[in-house]
Amino acid sequence: MENYVILKAKMAKESSSEIAKMDTNSKNLMLLKMSEGLENSLDIIIEENKKDVFKAKEKGFSSALIDRLTLNEKRIKEMANGLRKIAQLDDPIGKTVSAWTRPNGLQIQQVRVPLGVIGIIYEARPNVTSDAAGLCIKSGNAVILKGGSEAINSNKIIVDVLRQSLEKNGFNKEFIQFIDVTDREAVKMLMKLNEYIDVLIPRGGEGLIKFVVENSTVPVIETGVGNCHIYVDSSADFEMAENIIINAKVQRPGVCNAAESLLVNEDIASEFLPVICKKLIDMGVEVRGCEKTRQIINDVIQATEEDFKTEFLDLIISVKVVEGIDEAIKHINRYGTKHSESIITKDYFNANKFLREVDAAAVYANASTRFTDGFEFGFGAEIGISTQKMHARGPMGLEALTSVKYVVYGEGQIRE
Amino acid sequence: MENYVILKAKMAKESSSEIAKMDTNSKNLMLLKMSEGLENSLDIIIEENKKDVFKAKEKGFSSALIDRLTLNEKRIKEMANGLRKIAQLDDPIGKTVSAWTRPNGLQIQQVRVPLGVIGIIYEARPNVTSDAAGLCIKSGNAVILKGGSEAINSNKIIVDVLRQSLEKNGFNKEFIQFIDVTDREAVKMLMKLNEYIDVLIPRGGEGLIKFVVENSTVPVIETGVGNCHIYVDSSADFEMAENIIINAKVQRPGVCNAAESLLVNEDIASEFLPVICKKLIDMGVEVRGCEKTRQIINDVIQATEEDFKTEFLDLIISVKVVEGIDEAIKHINRYGTKHSESIITKDYFNANKFLREVDAAAVYANASTRFTDGFEFGFGAEIGISTQKMHARGPMGLEALTSVKYVVYGEGQIRE
Questions:
Q1: Nearest chain B residue to A363, by CA
Q2: Is residue B381 part of a domain?
Q3: What does the radius of gyration of chain B's CA atoms come to, in whole angstroms?
Q4: Which end of chain B is more exposed for a tag (fewer CB within 10 A), N or C?
Q5: How many domains is chain A built from?
Q6: pLDDT, tens digit, for every residue of A9-37?
Q7: Which CATH number characterizes residue B101's domain?
Q8: Confidence check on the interface: ipTM exceeds 0.90, yes or no
Q9: Same domain (yes/no): B249, B189
Q10: Which residue of B has its CA nearest to A379?
Q11: Which residues form the Aldehyde dehydrogenase domain (chains A, B) (predicted)?
């Protein structure tokens, strides 16, 4: 298997210099041909997908997971449309980030270039296969895809279709590589191939991400885990606070930008908490409160230290009464995962303080944490949400899949 | 020792939120006080440094290493001036990188913020201690310094002086941490402290950098190794080519942006090689040539495959005759370390092709590779030269020590 993984990585590396220098028109044409390919292969994709769904049901997977896994005509067409939309986005490659002339006449330009080879390690969703391939191609990168075992048949057929679409139209199919082995040994190998892979992006649960961060010698972009807070300041507009909390907790609880924890200023706790907690509970949310919360509302479960650390990804919320903004910021910087954090306040200085001092990829005043998303931010795409500080932070669009180089125009300059 | 290293990292992390929010005036004042401190401690620094120099001589270290290690009044004053110059640089923190308003009225700003805690792992030069501390402080980061054993006494006293200068003037001395243990076990521990350290920057030889890249779970910025090439195209101005090759090879052979390999177009090889090789040999450079080179100049050593891979850091150059620009680019992308590469040519299309297709942090047309440097690029500072593609690439100034965050101003927006 080692040779197999190395071979795939090598082919990606070799093809990467070719795609790196392709112009925008050619890359867009590839994307359009890939999208046509998907639409012309609905039947066979659905057939292969059924095998994965059958196995998942046999294994008794949750209905949510089975739903994520299932492909139908509509979803495959959405994948195809996704590729068309990527074709419409601006090409980041070749853009001049900055340019200046030195006193000795050297003209220096900092120009955007592809990263080279990007490895994407993901779990159950087969649509990630075409999405990730599309974004890597548009940004001039070769890609190595390693999906989860649950979706192996779906991923294989999607990759086959995409590669054939390239080949049939005279493009190099090796730009897209797929690791057709589902165990973690294959991931382990990828993580050591610094010679061939420029960056790894794990997309999935906390376990997968931790495994990659801890074992990879290839640079990693850490994505996703979001233990997001909403802090309701004493001056908050209660109605606004309620709307935002409900949106952030209930609208889609299984995603990383959903709120997991509510912090409430003690000055308003006895007035605000009964209202919001009733609403949350009525909507099926389990409330786990601190001691002070439970003094105000008797029938909520005691929140443990562990609860405050947990990304529930479910209809559960931890609640803590805090003395004021300083305790709120301290709590968030301690328990948060540096993803998305929001303050609800009318106070100018407290809004500024929160936005400045909370250490997270995205900090909000008076808005839902659910907006941390490449599409909602207007990037037109998203390869994941970075929760690390190096390279890219927050929602990652095409630019996160690029590097820069310095291009220097001289006329014989030497260094004194 | 483990507890000791963790304690230092913890103290850095705790202090990092304080320095992150300090304004530019306060950070500059710290730098000025640190520089005064160094100038007021000349005698004791020189005394402690003598211990290191004595030990190095005893161990029979090379005169070059002993020179790098030695501190005198002039060099300490240069360190102090270095801190003053950092105080004069623009503060990158708080700068708005970009800002836009979404259709729903959300105002999004991408703002520069500190990385948090930066670990610098370096070797013999004690001046790195004050330099690195100064750059980290200016960019709002806490720093953990881990110097080489050769300079342990010098580094200790410099750190003591810097920390005391902070404390005496009412600042938190914990912004600067020093690991007072010289073996690699301490480095190994630092490399696993993802909870407390945001990025590690190894500065030193290939062995150190490889060790950190292969073992760190903390994100690393890979620096330094430069197997740099100069390609002389058939249309090159010979005099310009000679000047640039001599500058890049001879002016300072021990640095990463010095040239290590010369590629010459076969159309001009028999005319150009005898002239340049004679000049290089006269200046004490050992020439190791390919078969074709040796057919033109008999008395040069045969270059091995290994030679073409080697960063000599010495008065040695490998020479290869190539068929044309395509072979030159292929050779560079295969043997280079993606640092600095230069083409000497009068041909417009070949210059463009080389600048576009060579994969390196800095690519030059008609200039010496020696310009890849934070000061020469006009950044006013340099923490190292990144040879990786993630985060920062090429000479790193203050901006490379920062991250970004998204600050989002809402008025009650929730996601549909």
A1: B407
A2: no
A3: 24
A4: C
A5: 2
A6: 999 999 999 999 999 999 999 999 999 99
A7: 3.40.605.10
A8: yes
A9: no
A10: B102
A11: 11-280, 309-406
